[in-house]
Amino acid sequence: MAEVAALAGVTKMTVSRVLRHPEKVTPATRARVSEAIAAMGYVPNRLAGSLTAGVSGMVAAIVPTLRHSLFADTMEGLSDVLSEAGLDLIVSSSSYRTDVEESQIRSLLERRPDALVLTGLTHTPGARDLLRTFGVPVVETWETGDEPVDMVVGYSNREAAHAMTSQLLKAGYRNVVFVNGPSENNERARHRAEGYRTAMEDAGLGPLPVHVVRDEDAILPETGARALRAVRDQTPRADALFFTSDVFAVGAILACRDMGIAVPGDIGIAGFHDLEIGRVVSPTLTTVHVPALEMGRRAGEMIVGRLSAKPTAERQELGFTIIERQSTRKSA
Amino acid sequence: MAEVAALAGVTKMTVSRVLRHPEKVTPATRARVSEAIAAMGYVPNRLAGSLTAGVSGMVAAIVPTLRHSLFADTMEGLSDVLSEAGLDLIVSSSSYRTDVEESQIRSLLERRPDALVLTGLTHTPGARDLLRTFGVPVVETWETGDEPVDMVVGYSNREAAHAMTSQLLKAGYRNVVFVNGPSENNERARHRAEGYRTAMEDAGLGPLPVHVVRDEDAILPETGARALRAVRDQTPRADALFFTSDVFAVGAILACRDMGIAVPGDIGIAGFHDLEIGRVVSPTLTTVHVPALEMGRRAGEMIVGRLSAKPTAERQELGFTIIERQSTRKSA
DNA sequence: GCCTCCGATGTTATCGGTATCATAGCGGTG
DNA sequence: CACCGCTATGATACCGATAACATCGGAGGC
Predict the structure, then answer these.
(1) Inter-residue contact A142 to A154 (CB < 8 Å)
(2) B78: exposed, middle or buried (C-beta count within 10 Å: 0-12, 13-18, 19+)?
(3) Per residue in B160-183, pLDDT tens?
(4) Looking at the C1' of nucleotide C20, which residue has the nearest alpha carbon?
(5) For a designed S-S bond to A243, which of A166, A248, B47, B238 qualifies (C-beta 3.0 to 4.6 A apart)?
(6) Cβ atoms B228, B252 nearer than 8 A
(7) Domain that holds residue B68
(8) Contact B279 A221 (CB under 8 A)
(9) What is the reported pTM?
(10) How many folded domains does chain B comprise?
């Protein structure tokens, strides 16, 4: 910067002004400085800038994974909004582990992000402490709840699972089994299980044991196929399976096809997330659409709003949508 | 940091050493300092650290999009390797536009990333200049070619398309039409078209006109369905369609089902990328598997290798795999 | 017991910007 | 024509850390 200044015959301060507050510099000087910048191929150093300015222009986000286009969609939405506001996005994946999340939060805070976007509401106590004492704006996504760290944008996994279960019952299934992922560190899984149970109870039915896929099982169709076989073993009267992810549900549909089980006739199958695979499998998959991209966008808007001190809703519950497709049309 | 130092009864320098070179500090002092750090909830400021140290500990990546789990998988692989090495990842999406890419490169360079990961080999002249004069390590991904800016990890889109076209011909199809995306700013699309053409010529057949979906068309199954109808209109003798993406191919398969066209009997359909949708659609989709995750990993390893001055291959051509499934088993 | 050497810690300068206040130069006013 | 006030630019200090060199004290060798 000093060299640019020398070349333009001004001081660093004027160069700095040309870059940050061009209106405060005479058009003539501004032109000379711009020319010098271009001639030298000068690229300002924001590390230094952020250090004095006190804002870094970065937002950090932690997602469980970028695969399967769940959270990746959220990141795309977030990135879109942030980049319009001139903010950059740092992403890390926690592999669904809250202890990893905590250490990532710690490490990301060292970069002084202007805000943090987290997935879910479940964090280690250490992480919550850290966030609170640090006072950085935080947006939690993918769930809504009572005790957010700061801002939230999500939908109710409980209600979504409740609605889907009710839908299955309405379609004529009685013995609906919910197939869940591990829920210790994942309130989304836990809330879905609760939604399932209350829906069963609301219908005067006893909930059946929730089948939980093991932690080691990857998010793959085969895992769903295995779950299907296990459930038919353990709960032979099951006439519908509601999976916590379309990936599993689709695996189950394919397994049914192989095993000669009619879907939706013999057994109904529903998923969660509304991934593309559910639209193209046959029979097409009944599922819950979740606003993945939109949550990212909203999170971005909340952050931009907060940083510019514009009034913005800091707690947004977005809707989900039950999408009924062939896999649960019992009558069909 | 000064406060921590005061509390521990040492100077900032010692605190800094405890954090960066703990082995250079007496265990006793180290313990006292660590205690002070914990007591104050002190989180070091890497903006400042990077400023002096000259390395930022960040890697920036630009992908066309995070949707559809193509490049998101690459980012997941990259992020895995980088985080193990203590590097953070900044991501932006360019929406498949090289002009956007250039301005993102410029803006990202202001953060002084230790390396840059780009998608593809096509960049604006301005971008190439910038990268060269800046001298930051660069990894280009998703294609291999002769004039990389710096390092490359990819596979040959030309050969992949050639292999798939040959496969279709071997399966007994004759009039193979390639359905491509816009190729002006995308050498992957261009090379695939070339691979298709030479494969046709190698078989002694005249290539048929490549159908190009419009720029405005989103990457959605419907776009593939539309392309199918257009090709059947314009090239009625087409007996196989090779799509540049599984998303389009799957849309075409579904459209065929609706229109009563038998796949693979009346028409063969092949895709590209090996997405999950191709595995679950019926008939299952013949496609090219590309090493999306692995390219990310390798890119990460190259960067880590370069930064630690460890000898690492700086030019890696990974393989693709033709996956033959039902949609092109003409005899079946 | 004295000297040397080495390891632990401190001092100083600097990284590349920007906030803040100072100053100079200008036009407008009565 | 002297004075005022405003605007464009400069000088200085500082953001929070670290590299490089200086210093101090104790262990080991003779």
Answers:
(1) yes
(2) buried
(3) 999 999 999 999 999 999 999 999
(4) A13
(5) A248
(6) yes
(7) 55-155+291-318
(8) yes
(9) 0.94
(10) 3
